[in-house]
Amino acid sequence: MLGRIVAAIVIALALPSGVFVAGVTAAEPAVESTDATLVSAYPNPVADGDSGEFVAVRFEGPTNTTGWTLTDGKTTARLPNRTVEGTIAVAVEPGAAKDHTEYPIVPLAGRLRLANDGERLELRADGEVVSSARYRNAPEAERRDFETGTWEPIGATDYDPIRTDGGSARAFVLPDAPDAAVGELETADERILVGGYTFTDERIAEALLEAAAEGLVVSVLLDGAPVGGMSDRQARTLDRLVEGGVDVRVLSGPYTRYRYHHPKYAVVDDRAIVATENFKPAGLGGKSSRGWGVVLEDDRAAATLASIHEADRTWRAATAWDAYREGRTFTDVDPAVGGYGAEHTPKRIEVENTTVLVAPDNAADALRERIEAADDRILLQQVRIGSRENRLLEAVLAAAARGVRVRIHLGGSWYVEDDNAALIEWLNRRSAAEGWDLEARVDDAEGERYEKIHTKGVVIDDTAVLGSLNWDRSAQSNNREVLVALEGSAAAAYYAGVFEDDWESDGGDRALPAGLLAAVAAVGAGTLLFARRLEFVGERETVTDWQW
User: Where is the PLD phosphodiesterase domain (predicted)?
Assistant: First the structure.
């Protein structure tokens, strides 16, 4: 026994500084298991010379790695003479690798070259291949998961959907309720945590400044590289927040885990605001866009969002605003200045259950499962749908095929109208051919109730789902997004009522009735089409362009 203790002490002293190895003991005389699998590789760290590379290996049982090697076919490194168990990370430079993985680090002896353009790795025991894996074209600061065949940013979270007991909530829509979000922020007693994409709304900024002045914890986390660049107006707003004691950070730089930090939520004490709109006048300020939002009196939902905020705010890519803005220039953007009536006032509702969904961790899969379980209706309002091959749209079409009533209402803004017009033509033609109860429209509200659709929401039977997730592939797999699924007839009825009013009020000018579509399909794209439609559809109107 004394000999084994001394051996363990010697091994511990031999490890590089800062390296702690769990599940690793001194080598035993015999190998108890040879069941090992290459789990992942990190070939392209940001550091010069790719310092910090590692390969993760899972050992199903206690395994003596004496005589084990890891090779890329050109260079070979030896595993130590120890017994290991579980998942470990092996590295030639363990001190550098420990900052990039939570797995216990085991040092390799020799040289192992993980080329950025690709390698075939082999784990060998006494010369026999135990496990092999291949990767190609390693993105910077991403880990290759050999089991899923995907690249994942180092440090990416892995949240499961969190289902709560629901409770009271206040449903609202924009631009009808410009005071809904700011009014809630003004009631804070302890904390306000904001997770957003952009931030320019002066009224919301004033609420945060007042909270900070009263000694509350106030934190804002935003994207550091929004499409089109960060505006000068936002820079001035964030300057004011920082000067007033608000902790403002933006996600930027080589260690950014997600393509865009795109959520729209706030934690207010033990309540949560989740919306489809940004923290700007056109969004939560109520000056322009149609959007959905909800205030949840649900401490578990709030705690979940607070956990997400903390995980993203403390990641190494979260840069303090003062450090980020130094030496940068910003773009000029005119703020929205419109005003609209309040046809749909906020309504207090009871939610049977709330589920917090997060992308890229779980949102797309969970949303698809809900669509696949639909029995009665799917009412979808979106800015756009990325493509016909979108897996969420595929689930909607499968629902239509089994008899579910489907209505799809897409944005009509100049930057999406052509693609949306082409997609709804295809959807309506397919619906007519299949005999589905599915209709699709591009919005044509012409600014009477709102300026444009910016909603990212769907009603599925008696559940309403809303949040920041656009229906395109990149948002589902590459962005940080936050949604909530509100189960219960009251929530579904509120948002369904708004949807139906929007659907009827735009008149469907850009969508042909199913019967007329059938006639068009029979006679070709001819005189039945009027000039206004050709402006949006053009040559894609031809029947030969169908894709099923």
Answer: 257-283, 449-475
